[in-house]
Write a structure and sequence with these properties.
disordered N terminus, about 475 residues, 2 strands, 2 domains, membrane, two-stranded antiparallel ribbon, cell membrane, single chain, transmembrane helix, mainly alpha, Growth Hormone, Chain: A
Length: about 475
């Protein structure tokens, strides 16, 4: 009876701190998705070219790359929770400055600041969750991060739609005479403040505490999570995993000492991080409204399609939560790669049939419906697999000694790939066209299938102390 009650208390505590940590995922999603629906306002306010639009949209991603790299290393010094708190402050500053920006340069700087926060949250939330949860349910709890990312994206889409609808358009004046698109950024202040305050109530990662020699504090946190007896055992496990070659973490730990080459596990982490972006998912999230308008949908309908995509994404992630600790990470990645290759190929074929009406690209009603169904199936396959699973694996696949450094380089690679894909999309779509652009994403999805088969090892059910590099 007492043990069952203790387990319930432990699970309640674990659930509470996972909920707080994943607010970082919500902020990641909101900050990434808010740009979708503001582009008409940005182009008018700053007189942007297509390349200029791409740079303003993609500016956040440069900050994300820097934030992911810095956060992974900084978290080994200051702790996971403290760096997440810094990220929350950056979210607040970015939201205020982006909405008030009077020039493209100021806007880009504001988005760079927000990007540093997004990058930090993107790598630290999953690693923090993986370090405070039991191995047998770690996958499903870490998958909540992706649900919160999509919830944040969907929240941004809903807020954008509501503001644009209420004002009569994204560029129309709204509260206090400011156009609606500026309020789309200012709305982010609310969840950012909630994130900062909530972080004050969760403990530091016990594995970080052990690494820093703060054994009593680590044991106290683990006792609240798993009970006193299990806490002592886990502290000894963590210390044993570090004892063989423990020193202050550094980037050179990513090299195999016997060969001097980058460890295979690091290449695997970098690979899954890059492939997650090469399949083009953020084109749907960053440019969805513009994309659907470009093939004949109204702004109002395009914003509604964004909300539909976000809702389907959340449902797909919920399926993943139920499957990831049963069938494993690798099978889900393979299923996702195959599904995305087919659906992206279908979209490319649909766009190849598009014609021009009054100078604008247009799909027939039947082909437009097929493209819309394929796009949403693509979103489902992504969020059933690569969306949540990549973050789960990056949070758990690296050994304790190199976890911060491994996350730093993998997160950096992920955001650089995100930047390259997102910034290039407007120019590619206008230059080589949507069929070729989506054909490239389809080929990338196909290549990711073979990469996973060759390079990725299953991590389901393994303790973090047992990960090998």
């Amino acid at each position: 009876m007492y043990q069952a009650q203790l387990e319930r208390v432990n699970m309640a505590f674990i659930a509470a701190i996972v909920a707080v940590a994943t607010i970082g995922g919500f902020m990641f999603g909101y900050d990434s998705g808010v740009i979708n629906g503001t582009q008409d306002g940005l182009e008018r306010a700053f007189d942007l070219s297509k390349l200029g639009t791409g740079l303003n949209v993609g500016a956040i991603l440069v900050g994300c790359a820097a934030g992911a790299f810095i956060a992974g290393r900084l978290a080994d010094r200051l702790g996971r929770r403290n760096v997440m708190m810094i990220a929350a402050v950056l979210f607040l500053l970015s939201a205020l400055a982006a909405g008030a920006a009077g020039s493209s340069a100021v806007f880009i700087i504001a988005r760079l600041i927000g990007g540093i926060g997004v990058g930090a949250a993107s790598v630290l939330s999953p690693v923090y969750i993986s370090e405070v949860t039991p191995a047998h349910i770690r996958g499903r709890l870490s998958s909540v991060q992706q649900i919160m990312i999509i919830t944040g994206l969907t929240g941004a889409f809903v807020a954008n739609y509501a503001l644009a609808h209420s004002a009569g358009g994204s560029t129309a004046p709204f509260w206090f005479g400011y156009p609606a698109w500026r309020w789309m950024f200012w709305m982010q202040v609310i969840p950012a403040a909630v994130y900062f305050l909530a972080l004050l109530f969760i403990p530091e990662s016990p594995r970080f505490l052990v690494v820093r020699g703060r054994i009593a504090e680590a044991e106290a946190v683990l006792a609240r999570l798993f009970g006193p007896h299990e806490a002592r055992r886990k502290v000894e496990e963590i210390r044993a995993s570090l004892a063989a070659d423990h020193h202050k973490p550094k980037l050179s730990d990513l090299l195999d000492k016997s060969t001097g080459r980058v460890r295979r596990i690091v290449w695997a982490g970098i690979g899954i991080a890059i492939f997650q972006q090469l399949v083009g998912i953020n084109i749907v999230f960053y440019y969805g409204a513009v994309l659907w308008q470009s093939v004949g949908f109204s702004e109002n309908d395009a914003l509604k399609i964004n909300i539909l995509s976000g809702t389907l994404s959340i449902l797909a992630c919920l399926v993943t939560v139920g499957l990831i600790d049963r069938i494993g990470r690798k099978p889900l990645l393979l299923i996702g790669s195959a599904g995305m290759a087919v659906t992206l190929g279908t979209m490319a074929a649909c766009f190849a049939t598009a014609g021009f009406v009054d100078g604008s690209l247009h799909l027939s009603d039947q082909v437009g419906l097929i493209a819309l169904i394929a796009a949403n199936l693509y979103v489902i396959f992504f969020n059933l697999s690569w969306g949540p699973v990549m973050w789960v694996m990056l949070g758990e696949m690296f050994p304790n000694q190199i976890r911060g450094s491994g996350l730093a380089v993998s997160g950096f690679a992920q955001w650089i790939a995100n930047f390259a894909i997102s910034v290039s999309f407007p120019a590619l779509a206008a230059g080589v066209g949507l069929p070729v652009t989506y054909g490239f994403y389809a080929l990338s999805a196909c290549a990711s299938f073979f990469f996973v088969r060759a390079m990725v090892n299953e991590t389901r059910g393994r303790e973090l102390e047992d990960m090998e590099g």
